[in-house]
Each structure stands twice: as C-alpha cells, then as structure tokens.
Write a structure and sequence with these properties.
The protein is α/β, with parallel strands linked by helices and about 400 residues long. It is built from 13 helices and 21 strands. The N and C termini lie close together (about 10 Å). The structure holds pyridoxal-5'-phosphate. Pyridoxal-5'-phosphate (PLP) binds next to loops.
C-alpha cells in the first residue's frame, strides 16, 4: 500500500466529520436525533470508518441502500440501528433479521412479503413506512388521488404480524433549491406528510420516529426536524449549503506532481489535441485520471490547488493521468502535493464546471484511490479497496 501512497489518495478528516455532525445536531435542536447516511460507502468516504465516528457523536441511526452495505457495517462492528432505504426483495428477509436491519416499507405488497418471511424466519422485522409525497419514486402515494387508498393500506400494514412499525418518513425532491416554485413544492410535500401523520393518528396509529429532512431540508427548513433528520451530503461538508453553513469538507483528494517538462509554443497536449500551448509552457503530469474518479468532463476546466496558486488542467484528462499548467507556478515541481478537491478547491465548484453534482464526484472516487483516515489530528488507518 505504501507504494501507491505518493500517487493519488483521499485524505478523510474524521475530525471534520465529527465537527459537521455536532454542528448539524445543534442546528436541528435537542428534540431531533440525527441519522447518518452512509450509503455508497459513505459517499466515497468509507462507510465503516465514517459510521464509527457518527456513532461516537451520538447519531441514533444510520442509513444504507442495500443489504450488502448493511452487512459491511455489521462486519465492521457498527452496532447502531441501520435503515435500509432501497427497494428490497422479500427473500432477503432472513439477512435483514440476522443483521438487525430496519427495512423501509414502500407498498402494501412489500410489507406483506416482509411479514410473511419474518414469520417464517421466526423473527420480527423492524420497519419504517415510506411515504411518497412528491418524489414519485418509492412509497405510499400521498397526492390527492391516492391519499385515502394509501391511508387504508398503511393502516393494514401497521396491523401485519411479524412487523414492528417503528417509524415513518418521506423524501424531498427540491428542498435544496430556494426558488419560489421549489419552496412551494417542498411545503406541499411537508404538508402531505403531516396530513398523513394526522390521519393515521386519528386511527390510533402513531410512530416513534417521524423523519423527512435530507441535506436540503436540514439547510433550508430546520423547522422540519421532526424526531430525526437524515443529512448525507451536508455531513460530508460538500456542496453549496455546506459552505454556507461553515461545515468542513471531510474528503481532500490529493495527488503528487510526477514528471515536469517544458514545451514549445503551439504544441498539442493530450488526446484529441484539445489544448495547444500559446507560449513556452511548463507542464506537470499528475497521476490521477478518470479511472480514479476525476471526470473527463473537467478537461481544460478544473484548476487543482497548490500552495503557490491554482494550476489549470491542460488538455483531456486520461484514464490514469492528466497534465497541469505550471508555467506561472515555477515554485511547484516534481514530488509536490496538490489538492484536486478539498478545502481550497471545492468539489461543489468542480461539479458545477463538470455539469455534475458534488454527490457524483465524491461517489466517483474509485477503489484504486487509497483512503487515509485522520482522527484527533493523527492518522488512524489506511484502506485500499483493491483486492490485495
Ligand atoms: C440519500 C438519501 C438521503 C440523504 O440525501 P442528501 O441529499 O445527501 O442529504 C436522505 N434520505 C433518503 C431517503 C435518501 O435516499
């Protein structure tokens, strides 16, 4: 692993994760517990290492998208309740029970399947009811046309044997957008959520954990905290809202300048001849390419950060390398570290230039990139996901 370290790596600042977690908990108030979203390997940050810190910081829950991600947490010794958000076949019920996972229930059919399989396995499955208030993805539909049918269906689901209905939740489609029409839509979604809760309560159906706030709502509608809130991206300190709230980026993607060479004016650089030198140009080769997760759409656009200033990427990003223009940064040479994304070169800004979202860039940091974890100011672990 040491041999790869001076190439390209992701430094994961678990102190920043702890800081963000505390900040968000204070923001949402003592009545709401935090659920840490650690799906997709904690947005590329490493699920087990992130989960341990979230647990230590007093989060009540974690969320993943599927059973393999839940199992990874359990194998890593994480004991917190884990909510599985994605569509899940009923035949995974035994694994759900064995791993102590809480399952999202998004239709009466899915609930009947989980109920049947849980009884067969001799266990009780803890579930959270998922309401579709306007995302049109998973959940009991809560628009006018489906509201009463969904109410009846949820009422029946709550009575199914083999299930313990602990929570109920919904997910916002545009809570991260602050335009008038997006605000109106988010308020409509919240109102549908509250209306369903009221109608269920009238029938004696109450829920210990009601939750709706993703990152967008945590940033823009802290009044939607309910019993629990579910921020993902914000927790990792990425995106425009995280910057606005003063949160810290948890991941710094770093690379090291390899070879440095001088080129004559009018020299083409990289595939496709998409860059041509205008002057005598000093180019550094960075050992990071799209196979590491640096999207090719940042070719000729992104500027990596060096202590002496920003260095623009020159020409197309290749699979394993890209070139940076160091003509105006004579102090930067072979062996120097650069920041590809991080506190100085934000992943949100890069995403904007790439026509992508910060989520995509973080999740794209590939298994070839080692993760170095820091906690309490010192390195505590190094992980490489390549089969060794
Ligand atoms: C992914 C996800 C979240 C977290 O979303 P962010 O935008 O990263 O905060 C919350 N809830 C559900 C249901 C999700 O699927």
């Amino acid at each position: 692993m040491d041999s790869t370290l001076k190439r390209t790596w992701a430094s994961i600042d678990l102190d920043a994760l702890a800081y963000n977690c505390r900040h968000l908990q204070e923001r949402m108030g003592p009545g709401a517990r935090m659920l840490g979203v650690v799906k997709a390997d904690a947005y590329g940050h490493g699920a087990v290492q992130s989960a341990r810190v979230l647990e230590e910081m007093g989060c009540a829950y974690l969320a993943v998208s599927n059973i393999d991600e839940a199992r990874e947490l359990r194998l890593g010794g994480v004991g917190l309740p884990v909510l599985q958000l994605g569509a899940t076949p009923a035949d995974q019920s035994a694994a759900i029970l064995a791993n102590g996972v809480t399952q999202a229930v998004y239709s009466e059919r899915s609930a009947q399947g989980f109920s049947r399989e849980a009884l067969k396995a001799g266990g009780t499955m803890r579930v959270h009811i998922k309401l579709d208030t306007g995302m049109s993805r998973l959940g009991f539909q809560c628009d006018e046309a489906h509201f009463e049918d969904s109410l009846e269906a949820i009422d029946r689901v709550c009575g199914l044997p083999g299930l313990e209905v602990e929570g109920i939740f919904t997910h916002f489609a545009v809570s991260d957008e602050t335009g008038a029409s997006s605000r109106a839509y988010t308020l409509l979604q919240y109102e549908r959520f509250q209306r369903m809760l009221r109608r269920l309560e009238e029938r004696g159906r109450t829920f210990a954990i009601r939750h709706c706030a993703n990152s967008g709502a945590t940033a823009n509608y802290p009044q939607f905290a309910c019993d629990m809130f579910r921020p993902g991206l914000l927790t990792y300190g990425a995106g425009e809202a995280a910057e606005r709230l003063g949160l810290k980026p948890v991941m710094t993607l770093k690379s090291t300048v390899g070879a440095v060479s001088r080129y004559e004016p009018d020299t083409f650089v990289s595939y496709g001849r998409a860059f041509c030198t205008r002057r005598e140009t000093r180019l550094g080769v960075l050992p990071i390419g799209y196979a590491d997760g640096l999207p090719r759409s940042l070719s000729n656009k992104w500027q990596v950060w060096t202590p002496s200033g920003r260095a623009p990427i020159a020409g197309r990003i290749c699979m394993d390398m890209c070139m940076i223009d160091l003509t105006d940064l004579p102090q930067v040479g072979e062996g120097d570290e650069v920041e590809v994304y991080g506190a100085h070169a934000s992943v949100g800004e890069a995403a904007g230039l790439a026509g992508m979202i910060p989520y995509e860039l973080l999740c794209a940091v590939s298994k070839r990139v080692p993760r170095l974890y820091c906690r309490h100011g010192r390195e505590i672990a190094r992980e490489l996901l390549l089969r060794g």
